[in-house]
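S.,

Sequence below, as promised.
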Amino acid sequence: MKKPTKTGRAAALFSLLAALAVLPAPAVAQATPEVEALAAKIKAEQFKTIVNCERCNLAGADFDEQFLRLAALERADLTDARLRGADLTGIHLTRAKLTGTDFSGSNMAGAMLANADLRGATLVDTRLDAVRVHGADFTGANIQRANFRLLEYVKKLTFAGADARGAIFRHAFLGGVDFSGTDLRGADFTRATGLTNAQLAKACGDDATILPPGLSIPRCDGS
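The prediction came back faster than expected:
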């Protein structure tokens, strides 16, 4: 029996991901009155003290353009919450539930995202310099043009199926990171370390993808 080629396996993988992409989107969580009241309290206190709301239910909350620097939100539920354009420098979101959360344009430099669930989250144009992401799950997330410079703590980190077009991984350590089915067209891996051809073989890119010397990546369909 003839074994499938690497090209054939890659084509089958991306066909599957394309099929999953057209599935109906899950219902977006709406903030309950209790969540809205708690969010309002946090906003009122954000400039007076460091926010501490571990294990809080903030699903669907609106924190667009708010100041939550160094906030302690470990294990909090922020499903489908909105934090677009927010200052989240150094925020603590260890083991937080961030599925479907929108962080577009926010500053999360130095954030703690260890073991956080970011499946389907949106982090377009988000700053994530030197974040701690070991065990974090970005499966299916939109991380277009997100800045992941200087990553170090990446054990069991996955970007499987993520849209990472134009994402920046300069000077990042990426040993063992899962890029299965990740769209890396235009991504920048300048001076990244730990990355291997075996990891990249499960992803796809294009001529604009910048890789360290000696590495290569399959082309995405249509690129």
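Helices lie at 6-21, 33-45, 197-200.

Coffee later?
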